[in-house]
From TrEMBL:
SUPFAM superfamilies for this protein: MFS general substrate transporter
Protein name per UniProt: L-fucose:H+ symporter permease
Example GO molecular function: fucose:proton symporter activity
Membrane association type: Multi-pass membrane protein
Domain of life: Bacteria
Keyword annotations: Cell membrane, Membrane, Transmembrane, Transmembrane helix
């Protein structure tokens, strides 16, 4: 539901693209700020405690949309989004490694992809709610027409629009409370006795090991650019669709809905493909395809550009869980803190859309898709790096085995 808010607030409060992009800055900035506290919770208590804490904070943030709609101030909405996303940050840091701990290490990345394949169900529901409850209730008056309204008339228009924004968020808060109660009473599938609950949590040593791990460091960087690319693509989908087709916000919302449906289907397809293709290789291929599609969008706006825009979601479907899984592979006791670092990398979704928004204000939305194209190239580089790293380790292991076996074979 959050991606359409950039366009919604831009219209309601008559702001530039850069100002309205602060929605994503507040949302994804919270992921950066709350990931380390989430790691403390997981190490000191358990993954389940982290999940419950995250759900509680997310529900509180969603409930804050009601007072925000009454005060009718942009800053209050940003605060509500920050609290909501802070809860989701804790949830992300806890739930992802929780899923990876539910089975053997070899299939952890594929298992995480399968679990996250259900996330787009919520994504589609969120876009549907925005498209049916928020976008159609925006007053179609232009910025000039709003400026000509009296103070009382403008307040009435903005109040009705913000009520439409508030309703689905408060409804979602109620759903989150129900989910919190359900999880609180369900027995954890992971044996809590295996969790590390030591009073002395040696974060310093974990930090040093993680910083020395080049494979992990590059994974965090790749996740930063991956989330940045994803946020850039979806945040400005409505603006691109309006520019390419000449439609309105509702038409742009439908294009975003199509993208989410493609994302949903592709999550399951990519999970199946991973049975036959190494995850990092698939990541590299899809990243390069996504970069090419972004270039197509900048060169051929119109039907072809819209088709390329929707197709990017198929490429995006595997990126987050795949980077997450291969970056955490082999971290052992540092996994919980490592998971926090990867969630902090979601900060890319706060920063990179600001660059794209500035480019939109200066040159238009079509050209701005060069920003996610560059991000996808970095993600593809991480896939290639992982492939080469593992091939090198395999060669080294094979050479060591040959050296050990030679005396025996000569005898």
């Amino acid at each position: 539901m959050t991606d359409p808010l950039v366009k919604v607030f831009s219209k309601i409060f008559t702001m530039s693209s850069l100002q309205s992009a602060l929605v994503q800055f507040a949302y994804y900035g919270a992921y950066f700020c709350l990931a380390i506290p989430a790691a403390f919770i997981n190490k000191r208590f358990s993954y389940k405690t982290g999940v419950l804490t995250g759900l509680g904070c997310a529900a509180a943030g969603a409930f804050l949309f009601y007072p925000a709609s009454q005060t009718m101030t942009y800053g209050f909405f940003l605060l509500a989004l920050f609290v909501l996303a802070g809860g989701l940050s804790i949830l992300e840091t806890s739930a992802n490694p929780y899923v990876m701990a539910m089975g053997c290490e070899r299939s952890a990345t594929r298992r995480l992809n399968l679990a996250q394949a259900f996330n787009p169900v919520g994504t589609n529901l969120g876009v549907f709610l925005a498209a049916t409850l928020i976008l159609p209730n925006l007053n179609q008056a232009s910025a000039e027409e709003r400026a000509a309204m009296s103070a009382a008339e403008l307040k009435s228009v903005i109040g009705a629009e913000l009520d439409a924004v508030m309703l689905p968020y408060v409804g979602m808060a109620c759903v989150l409370v129900i989910v919190w109660i359900a999880i609180a009473y369900i027995k954890t599938p992971v044996n809590e006795s295996t969790e590390q609950k030591s009073e002395n949590i040696h974060l310093g040593a974990s930090f040093k090991r993680l910083l020395a791990n080049r494979h992990y460091r590059f994974g965090v960087l790749a996740q930063f650019f991956n989330v940045g690319a994803q946020t850039c693509v979806w945040t400005f989908t409505i603006q691109y669709a309006m520019a390419a087709t000449g439609g309105n916000e509702v038409d742009g919302g439908q294009i975003l809905q199509y993208s989410m449906i493609v994302f949903l289907i592709s999550r399951f397809v990519m999970t199946w493909v991973m049975q036959y293709l190494y995850p990092a290789r698939l990541l590299m291929i899809m990243s390069l395809v996504a970069a090419a599609l972004c270039i197509v969008m900048t060169q051929t706006p119109g039907f072809v550009g819209i088709l390329a825009l929707v197709s990017i979601s198929a490429c995006l479907s595997l990126m987050f869980p795949t980077i997450y899984g291969i970056a955490l592979d082999g971290l052992g006791d540092d996994t919980k803190l490592g998971a926090a670092g990867l969630v902090m990398a979601i900060l890319g979704g706060a920063i990179l859309p600001l660059f794209q928004a500035a480019l939109i204000d200066a040159n238009g939305v079509v050209v701005s898709y060069i920003v996610p194209a560059l991000c996808f190239l970095v993600v593809g580089g991480y896939g290639l790096f992982d492939i080469k790293t593992r091939e090198y380790k395999h060669d080294q292991t094979a050479s060591a085995e040959e050296r050990t076996a030679t005396p025996l074979s000569s005898k």
